[in-house]
Predict the structure.
Amino acid sequence: MRGGLWSAAALACVMPAVVQAQEQVAGRWIVTVDYFGTPTVWTLTLKQDGATITGDLTGDVLTGTVKGNEIRFLAKDTVGGSEDVTARLVKGRITGEMLLVDGSEPTRTPHRLAFTAERPPEPASRPPMRHEFVPTRFYRQFSPSNPPALHVNPGDTIHTSTIDAAGIDAEGVRRAAPGNPQTGPFYIDGAMPGDTLVVRIRRLRLNRDTAISTNGMTERGQDARTAVRMAGTGKPVTWRLDRDKGIAMPEAPGDALKGYWVPVRPMLGGIGVAVDARPPAPGSGDVGRFGGNMDFNEMGEGTTVYLPVAVPGALLYFGDAHAAQGDGETTGDALETSMDVEVEVDLVRGKSAGQVRIETPAHLVAIGMEGSLDASFRAASSSMFGWLSADYGLAPADIAQIYGTAAEYRVSALPGRAAGMVLKIPKARLATLPGAKKP
Amino acid sequence: MRGGLWSAAALACVMPAVVQAQEQVAGRWIVTVDYFGTPTVWTLTLKQDGATITGDLTGDVLTGTVKGNEIRFLAKDTVGGSEDVTARLVKGRITGEMLLVDGSEPTRTPHRLAFTAERPPEPASRPPMRHEFVPTRFYRQFSPSNPPALHVNPGDTIHTSTIDAAGIDAEGVRRAAPGNPQTGPFYIDGAMPGDTLVVRIRRLRLNRDTAISTNGMTERGQDARTAVRMAGTGKPVTWRLDRDKGIAMPEAPGDALKGYWVPVRPMLGGIGVAVDARPPAPGSGDVGRFGGNMDFNEMGEGTTVYLPVAVPGALLYFGDAHAAQGDGETTGDALETSMDVEVEVDLVRGKSAGQVRIETPAHLVAIGMEGSLDASFRAASSSMFGWLSADYGLAPADIAQIYGTAAEYRVSALPGRAAGMVLKIPKARLATLPGAKKP
């Protein structure tokens, strides 16, 4: 494997071979390595030609042999790392050891690591179905280590609920510690690293009559004058949600704000997939290529989110629903509430943009989630370049003209580590192009 | 006068008094000072009680006497500066000298400066009228020194035209050097520093069939990957404007962009008033409290711009019209073209926000024009705080809740010195409030 702590080896130990009926080694495997106490998921793809096997182990090119149920191969990366593997296949499960040399370690000390490998769960052969899922546990990391809450097929629909950012459910009962606890993770059978998970938000409805917010301004939004003005604010505010009228009002407004109301516009603040096990798992307030706490107020009904799959099954999480939110979530807490959620999941196999893409009914949306609005502006612009180039066959100079005439830049979220900004391109403009994707 | 090169004095020379019929000294005067070769406009307000006069000279508090047509007073600021003035009033015009001590100069050397003062032109007593104005000169500074192109009353309408950013008019003829040459300046009779100029954009129509743009990306929008992609772009592109259909198309698109079109959405890139004479006048590509090259794509028909008046007559300039522009003017040049323009001007006397405010049919808009999107985000947020506080009686905690539920943040312009960002608050939300302004 290339890079980091995760490069590769030469195995010494030869395991005793027990004679068994020959099993098929070719195909895809999910490898679980015990990496110094951290169970870590890799992928293994094998091709067999007689006794010869080729393929890759998490991207490292391998060659080896298979003899009965005994497997031996050497995988190499491009920076001097390698994995020398000896294993056996018994009853559809590979068990073995690898001698791993990490090409990035100065000493290149070989490490002996145990692993197992299993076939990835393939989607059941059946028509798409709708799952009624009642969550009982909630998670605060986009972690690959949490047990799947439910296995679903690509094409299936999940009907479930989320609790609010503070951990309170529709009945007002605390169900988790505060900090955007997420529903899930949902294991999408057949999803493998390199695929794209498609999440279509079909339904997002209020399921209680209150939301919680604060009356302050996110620190990133305060200039010196605002900071002085805002001293002593940042206190909790309860909002009343009128589900019949579809509006929200502060429960106890002062005289000046009496009568203020906004239409509700339900959205998911958080939606993401598990990161792979190499870095420590990000918390439910974080954002990145895995999605996460994006707090973009157009993440509502009718929006589709494309997420790069990093681990087998993708492990989809969502939560932190808001009844309404201005651009930027300037109050730090939007109108935080629990929600009735229905999403349809799908899979684009073997293709990944490596970053989050969003599609609303009217727009393609690229999101920048960097440390400043300026950096996120550049990141969103760059991300959309890749999208328009790949899907519409446009050259940079063409794309520049589309931006110059049709770009819409909005602030998504500001309270967290990232100062999010999105670039929206109207689909109506792209529909005029020869390379336009047909719906 | 407080601060800068512009503080104040004690006059020695006593001028010979010629006996004349006594004229009225009370009221407002426009003072033109010859400041080391730069003609500089100050304001003078006088109250008379017998032989005693009080008032202020450009903010410095004065006391003095009037005897026949002879005027003497001493004006003082709060940092040790002063103006000691001796002058005479003859036929409605004051001529005199001042000994100015600049409180910020270490030596406080007194400077002897000549000045004249005249009554500000008051609006003619007549119903509002519509002026047909054909521009013959164009200006590339928001300068107080350019001669007024036309005197208008508050309430009047000006129908005129602008040439494009490159200096080309509706007939394709060069009329000025490139760099956003502006039509104007229009002198609004009665406008004085401390007032607010109201500019209602009534009509903004294409008057030719082409626009010029470029196919690059503003430097501020390029991350490293984009910079590599964009190498060799930034070339001119001609756009065809179909005035009947109201659409714009690149004249010679490549295969991938064939058929691309956008609806035209005419806007004024530049709209501003003259700065006072103290700083050097900003160029027509600059922005600030005077307005300027804001390049905000909602500055179209139906939009009202509020500008703080800095000099007598305000001196309104506008130009740099775009047929269409995406958020941020990412190409550096939007669809630059000439335009048929009609604006109605009005005046709010004695009241100024000290910064630009914008009102569209649906939104109040505050604009930040600082050096980064992050700073402009804060500036726009801070500016809107002032607006909602003053006009709607809202406390910071109230305003925070409005932002949190209804703020819309958009990028305005990026190519210049400023990375502009606007904060839009829907009027529909404010209409719910007890303190709402009635239309």
In short: The first strand of chain B starts at residue 27 and ends at 35. Chain B has three domains: 27-118, 129-346, 362-439.
